[in-house]
Write a structure and sequence with these properties.
heteropentamer; A alpha/beta; B mainly alpha; C alpha/beta; D alpha/beta; E mainly alpha; A: alpha/beta; seven-stranded mixed sheet; 14 strands; C: alpha/beta; 2 domains; 10 strands; about 20% strand; binds adenosine-5'-triphosphate; binds leucine; binds magnesium ion; amino-acid transport (chain B)
């Protein structure tokens, strides 16, 4: 068997995303195995729980490398744990494909790192472009205080400055906050045209519903963290009209996306979200690479990934020198309790850096 | 206007803190145990509130079930966990309590899913405008009113009645309290029941305010609650209420005006430490 | 010629909130003497000893040891200047043996600073002193046991042994005889008198008037926080003072006659 | 009234009292005396229900109470003023008395409290102080007062005179005589052997957990061997 | 594992020896880790960063200790917990500390993998030896007394505040040392690695091992830090079992593993004696 490592938060605060990620990755492996595997061998996904914690991720990665001797690995986890694991894989020269952790440093760790989603700054800049496309100017900026939120905020502010947007007020909140009374009052008094709020569905749901309940009517822009049916469930009617910048376009015409959405639904009985799609993608990309190397890992696999191009549910991907992908950012909007295509953002502002910034 | 709104929001938050902290205060006051697992009952209350309301359509039933079940679970925790540990140093119970909390958190996750539950149609969400334009959700007003009422009643019971004196006696010297006709178990069961039912009550409110219950929803109240009982001077119902409200308001203003310097938890604890340096016995303790 | 006092209590007042537990009390303790501090329950005797050692802070007034003011000094520094307190309510450390409790006090010289304490490991010398002190107060047999299970009478003596192990210049004893029967009390009082004869100055609080009259050379009487019977210090005269009789002895003659009887004995001993 | 038959009790594996048989006649004072560690306090705490009964029986009013919870025993009329006072330190003097009165109807509180304050006027002056802040003697008064508040039919007092000044000791003893006259049964532990012998009707002398002498107080007083050997009189 | 042991022993000094419960000990781990990480990145050799980390952690430990002197024992746990939150809150906002993003790409120590492991184990062993020595010295006796009854110790002439500060200083400095190793081991640190959960975890290690017992704490920390990895096979139920075990341990062996071992040894001896 050919072993692929997979670290994912199955317990702890990120367990819900971890579950989606796991389903996505399993689906990719199952499909590959159904088609005969790689070089006549079955693929095996070796799964470890990292609790989305850096501390847990290190022994997990070490085990994948030393005990399981995986040929390549996929991160189905958040930025913190992924960053910690990255160093180990890099040192062991095991290619590591990251699904949806958006911290910039991950790919900087070394040349065995690959990321299939847009890094944080890029998504932030996309947010700023969306504001402009919506014809708005005065932005209320709400930032989740973790690496995800910070990276987005940095990109957003950079983009906003370029595009001449005005940031009317900037607020931060913590991962565990669910009650935003004070923040909502302040935003209301700032009276922005649009609100750019980073968060995960479990913070964004309450935030959006509390904003709407307090009579704030400005459009709200979220990101891939919102991208889950749970968001609509929590925010209820308040979620209508919320935009999210993400990597999964549910209304895509692309065959890859359509089949994935259908297959995922068939396999799990629930609708795929961004995390599932990204993890599926990351796993598939790694498998594609393995096919090219006939199941060999290491340098060969790295080169195969670097030079390949992949048609995935989240678009056509190819890695640049830094092993980031350049792709369009999908804007989805909530309509009748589900995400639909609003627009697609593209352009030079979305180009990821191709070498480490000084 | 903004000032009033921030204050009002602080009070709403403070009321929730107060309801949770009260159970901690009762337990701390009674057994000198930091009852971290209390927050699991808060979570339990939230889950029951959502599930019963979704199933039956009646919020009142949701409240009733949440409070009663949380209360009974509280008694069970006392009997199974704390009673056998009373003779041990307090950190033994603390660690056991933390273990229990982790286990509960995981149990909720395994039983009800990691992503939490929401109301199908969340009740009490209408807007009400009070005092010339302050906007509230109905739920927010009811939280404040019911907290004030319940705590007022408890404060009276604790200081003015024979039951109250009996409770306090068990704190100083449980063995002697028994020798004066006090049934220790009854007193402790009662305290755990009341404190836990209030935690369940708070859980339902939080579920209503956020329309979300999650396995991890108890972690913030668990340590904020501990901060509050210290601020309140430990043991007194009135002190706990005041401390909770003050903390709510401090956080409310703090997150807006100090949010750039410190996060919400740090603001709360910076405040706590500052208070303790000036008044080592807590904000509202009898000296 | 009168020696300079070892301890001077000067206009000391202690208030707890609204309550004045000690009200402008002054007295001297002369080097080498055994001074009795007596008075009704709640008169402020214990509070006085605590004010001297710094356990409670005097609201007003000053305490001087060998002419040096103790004002503002924390407890441990006062102890290191030569005071030792044996408390009314006993508080041994419960999870080390009776002997180790005393040894800890005997090791005071090694524990003045943490660094010094860190450098020392051996405890033979301290254990020896500890045993000696335990023998002195008559509980050598209990040395190896844990204090948690000791009856009150043993604990009171442990408390005293611990104070002695500090080898103080001035020993403050708060009801050391309580909880002992008459024979034991008599023996321990004798020990106290011996210690005094060997040069340790002692202030003794006791309600066991018999023994007080027998061994004390002078008496200071407190009532309701004030010093009464100021002009007299001879024990027998003090007992005859009408104010003292009214406040302290009450109508029953038993205690009094016992006291007088012992006082006579004391005089005869002398 | 109280009847101990071959009572043994102790802590864990340790037996502090062995085969103690003692019978208290109603309306009398019985003195329990002996040196430190003889087992006096252990006996009282065992009767109160706090020290493990290891053998024998405790009968009160003819009924076996050895298995009852402490809280049941006080309801039957047994009160204790324990060694070390064991006050509710964080409660005021008045609330300590209130706890004492919990087994009685609330309406009686005032009257009973005033009775105790009459006995110990000093407590009246300190009514709202925390019990933990009282002086040693004041605490002793409160411990006795608190026990009286239960309106017991039998009261057990450990080290009655401990820390009390002569005047109050006298007072206490006359109060005991009064209580006895009113029909109360009293079990008294006391180091001040003179005083016990002068007031008690019966005496039991313990030594290392065993009874060494039992009988009328008058006989004890006249038994010079006994007084010299065990009672610490000289 | 060796790092956990060192860290747990450092807390045991404060909590187990001197009786001062701390719920914010991870902050000192963090101080050591950040300092070591930043200095390494600035070019200092790894070994040299360790004593500096200890020094800074110890100094801040003394400051926290000074503050703790003011609050009564009951409040200490919560105050130190506050210190922990404050630390995380401050670090979060400092860009030069990497803010939320933390510090990564920490330069290599120059030791090989096994070399680093041996180095950590040696340091942990040295710490254990130091703890055993302290326990035996007069300092240990005084700590023990302070833990039980401060007031009594004062009356015995002990400068209680100074001893408490000493405990804080040694304990936090050792935590700083553990922090340096930690940063080097993970090569990545962020504010969340030093939060409340870490503080609670290390306290559980101490208590589960057997508070105050050096051997117990060593074993407790070793076992508990390895536990999550051992539990991988029960997957979803990992934390449930972990929490449950924590509870059961306290419920049935409140003295921790140390007490459990003593009990078992006694039992076998008794049985052995009978046979
Ligand atoms: N910490 C305190 N707070 C308030 N009041 C106190 C405190 N300590 C003592 N008192 C009060 O001060 C008075 C004097 O107490 P103190 O203990 O000095 O009396 P004492 O002379 O030793 O009496 P006794 O002979 O009964 O031991 C008492 O009325 C007592 O209640
Ligand atoms: N908690 C305990 N655990 C174990 N042994 C105990 C405990 N309390 C007392 N003992 C032991 O029981 C024996 C009897 O003690 P007890 O306190 O009953 O004596 P006592 O007659 O009241 O003495 P005293 O006159 O000094 O108060 C003593 O040997 C004592 O060491
Ligand atoms: C679920 C995702 C939004 C996670 C996020 N991208 C992270 O890096 O932490
Ligand atoms: Mg006194
Ligand atoms: Mg006794």
């Amino acid at each position: 068997d050919i072993k692929i490592g997979f670290n994912v938060p199955l317990t702890g605060f990120a367990a819900a995303d971890g579950k989606s990620a796991l389903e996505g990755a399993k689906l990719a492996v199952a499909q590959a195995n159904a088609k005969g595997g790689v070089a006549g061998q079955k693929l095996e996904l070796v799964i470890y729980d990292d609790q989305a914690s850096a501390k847990e991720a290190v022994p997990v990665a070490t085990k994948l490398v030393e005990k399981d001797k995986v040929v390549g690995a996929v991160s189905g986890s958040y930025s913190g744990s992924t960053r910690a694991a990255a160093g180990i894989f890099q040192q062991a020269k095991v290619p590591y494909v990251v699904a949806y952790a958006i911290h910039p440093e991950i790919t900087l760790t070394g040349d065995y790192m690959f990321r299939v989603s847009a890094m944080g700054e890029v998504q932030g800049r996309a947010g700023a472009m969306l504001v402009q496309n919506l014809g708005k100017k005065k932005v209320g900026l709400v930032t989740l205080k973790n690496d995800f939120g910070q990276a987005l905020a940095a990109g957003f502010k950079e983009g906003a400055a370029k595009l001449g947007l005005q940031v009317a007020g900037e607020y931060e909140y913590g991962m565990q906050d669910r009650q935003f009374g004070a923040l909502v009052s302040k935003l209301k008094s700032d009276n922005p045209d649009v609100i750019y709020a980073s968060g995960y569905y479990f913070t964004a749901g309450p935030l959006v519903s509390q904003l709407r309940a307090a009579g704030v009517t400005a459009p709200i822009i979220g990101q891939e963290g919102y991208d889950s049916d749970k968001f609509m469930e929590i925010a209820g009617p308040a979620s209508e009209g919320v935009y999210v910048t993400t990597s999964l376009d549910r209304d895509s015409d692309s065959a890859a996306t359509k089949t994935f959405l259908a297959d995922y639904h068939k396999a799990t009985g629930s609708n795929a979200d961004m995390v599932a799609a990204s993890s599926y993608t990351a796993t598939s990309v790694l498998i594609e690479g393995l096919k090219k190397t006939n199941g060999k890992g290491g340098d060969e696999l790295k080169n195969a990934l670097t030079s390949g191009s992949f048609d995935t549910p989240i678009g056509k991907l190819a890695f640049n020198d830094l092993h980031e992908v350049k792709k369009d950012v999908q804007v989805q909007v909530v309509k009748d309790k589900s995400f639909h295509r609003h627009s697609v953002i593209s352009g030079p502002m979305l180009t990821p850096p191709s070498k480490p910034a000084k | 206007m903004l000032f009033l709104e921030l204050t009002a929001q602080g009070l709403v938050q403070g009321s929730i803190y107060a309801l949770v902290a009260l159970g901690l205060t009762l337990v701390y006051g009674l057994l000198r145990i930091l009852h971290v697992a209390h927050a699991a009952l808060f979570t339990l209350g939230g889950y029951l509130g959502v599930m019963v309301t979704n199933a039956s359509g009646s919020l009142a039933l949701g409240f009733a079930v949440a409070m009663i079940v949380a209360g009974i679970a509280g008694i069970a925790m006392y009997r199974l966990c704390y009673e056998p540990m009373l003779k041990q140093p307090p950190f033994v119970a603390l660690i056991a309590s933390i273990g229990l909390y982790i286990a509960f958190e995981e149990l909720f996750r395994i039983l009800f899913g990691a992503s939490g539950l929401s109301y199908q149609a969340p009740p009490l969400q209408q807007q009400v405008s009070l005092f010339g334009g302050l906007q509230f959700k109905q739920a927010e007003i009811l939280v404040m009113v019911s907290t004030a009422a319940i705590i007022g009643l408890l404060g009276y019971l604790q200081t003015r009645t024979r039951v109250g004196v009996a409770c306090q006696a068990t704190v100083s010297d449980p063995q002697m309290a028994e020798s004066f006709g006090i049934r220790l178990r009854q007193v402790r069961d009662l305290n755990f029941f009341v404190g836990s039912a209030l935690a369940g009550f708070a859980g339902v409110w939080v579920a209503l305010l956020n329309n979300l219950v999650e396995p991890t929803m108890g972690s913030v109240p668990s340590y904020k609650g501990l901060a509050i009982i210290v601020l309140g001077g430990m043991g007194s119902v009135r002190g706990t209420l005041l401390a909770a409200l003050v903390l709510g308001v401090v956080e409310s203003f703090g997150t807006i005006y100090l949010g750039k310097l410190l996060d919400r938890n740090a603001i709360a604890f910076a405040f706590l430490i500052a208070v303790l340096m000036l008044r080592p016995q807590g904000l509202f303790a009898r000296s | 010629m009168k020696a300079a006092p070892l301890l001077q209590v000067d206009q000391v007042t202690v208030r707890f909130g609204g309550l004045t537990a000690i009200d402008k009390v002054s007295f001297d303790v002369l080097p080498g003497e055994l001074l009795g501090l007596i008075g009704p329950n709640g008169a402020g005797k214990t509070t006085m000893l605590r004010a001297i050692t710094g356990v409670v802070r005097a609201t007003e007034g000053d305490v001087r040891l060998a002419g040096e003011s103790l004002k503002g000094l924390p407890i441990h520094q006062r102890i290191r200047k030569g005071l030792a307190l044996s408390q009314q309510l006993v508080k041994p450390l419960r999870d080390i043996s009776v002997l180790d409790n005393v040894a800890l006090a005997a090791g005071a010289a090694r524990t003045a600073s943490p660094l010094q304490a860190l450098m020392h490991v051996s405890q033979e010398e301290e254990a020896r002193i500890g045993r000696e002190m335990l023998a002195l107060v008559g509980i050598a047999a209990h040395a190896a046991q844990k204090p948690g299970i000791q009856p009150l009478g043993v604990l009171k003596r442990l408390e005293m042994a611990r104070a002695l192990a500090l080898r103080p210049k001035l020993l403050l004893l708060d009801e050391p005889l309580a909880g002992l029967n008459s024979k034991e009390a008599h023996a321990l009082a004798e020990t106290i008198a011996d210690i005094n004869r060997q040069g340790t100055t002692i202030v003794l609080i006791e309600h066991n008037l018999g023994e007080v009259m027998r061994i004390c050379q002078r008496l200071v009487v407190l009532d309701n926080g004030r010093r009464i019977a100021k002009d007299v210090s001879d024990p027998r005269q003090v007992m005859n003072d009408p104010a003292v009789r009214a406040a302290y002895l009450g109508g029953d003659t038993l205690a009094e006659s016992q006291a007088m009887q012992h006082a006579e004995q004391g005089v005869r001993h002398a | 009234m109280l009847e101990l038959q071959q009572l043994s009790c102790g802590y864990g594996a340790f037996e502090a009292v062995h085969d103690l048989s003692l019978s208290l006649r109603p309306g009398t004072i019985t003195g329990l005396i002996g040196a430190n560690g003889a087992g006096k306090s252990s006996t009282l705490m065992c009767v109160a229900g706090h020290v493990g009964l290891k053998g024998g029986s405790i009968r009160f009013d003819g009924q076996d109470i050895g298995m009852l919870a402490p809280e049941q025993r006080v309801r039957r009329g047994i009160a204790i003023s324990p060694e070390g006072r064991r006050l509710f330190k964080d409660l005021s003097v008045e609330d300590n008395l209130r706890v004492g009165g919990l087994v009685q109807p609330a309406a009686r509180f005032r009257q009973d409290r005033d009775y105790v304050l009459g006995l110990f006027p000093r407590l009246g002056e300190r009514l709202h102080s925390l019990a933990g802040n009282l002086s040693g003697g004041e605490q002793q008064m409160l411990a006795i007062g608190r026990a009286l508040m239960t309106r017991p039919r039998m009261i057990m007092i450990d080290e009655l005179s401990l820390g009390l000044m002569p005047k109050v000791i006298d007072l206490c003893y006359s109060a005991l005589k009064q209580l006895r006259a009113d029909g109360m049964t009293i079990l008294l532990v006391e180091q001040n052997t003179d005083r016990v012998l002068s007031v008690a009707d019966d005496v039991c002398v313990l030594e290392s957990g065993r009874t060494v002498w039992q009988g009328r107080a008058d006989d004890a007083r006249n038994n010079s061997d006994l007084t010299a050997a065990y009672l610490g009189l000289h | 594992m060796a790092i956990s042991v060192l860290f747990a022993l450092s807390l045991n000094l404060i909590t187990g020896f001197c009786g001062q419960i701390s719920l914010g000990h991870a902050a000192f781990l963090g101080i050591g880790a950040y300092l070591s990480a930043l200095l390494s990145k600035a070019g200092l050799p790894f070994i040299a960063t360790l004593p500096l980390g200890m020094l800074l952690a110890g100094l801040i430990g003394v400051v926290v200790g000074l503050a703790s002197l003011r609050v009564r024992a009951d409040f200490l746990a919560i105050t130190t917990m506050g210190v922990g939150f404050l630390f995380v809150g401050i670090v979060r906002q400092q860009d030069w500390l990497g803010g939320e993003l933390g510090v990564s790409a920490i330069p290599d120590s120059g030791l090989s993998k096994t070399g680093f492991m041996v180095f950590s184990v040696v340091l942990a062993a040295a710490t254990a030896a130091l703890c055993l020595y302290i326990r035996k010295s007069w300092m240990g006796r005084v700590f023990n007394g302070v833990a039980e009854d401060e007031d009594t110790m004062r009356v015995l002439g002990i400068d209680v505040p100074r001893y408490k500060l000493a405990a804080f200083a040694i304990g936090t400095a050792l935590a700083g040392l553990a922090g340096g190793l930690y940063a080097q081991h993970l090569k990545f640190i962020g504010p969340d690695s030093f939060g409340f959960v870490e503080s609670v975890t290390v306290l559980s290690m101490v208590v589960v091992g057997g508070i105050g017992s050096v051997a117990g704490v060593t074993i407790g920390a070793a076992v508990m830090s390895a536990l999550p990895a051992w539990f991988q096979f029960i997957g979803d139920y990992k934390l449930l079992v972990y929490g449950g075990l924590l509870f059961l341990m306290m419920r049935f062996s409140p003295g921790g593993m140390a007490a459990m071992v003593t009990r078992v040894v006694q039992r076998t001896q008794r049985n052995g004696g009978g046979a």
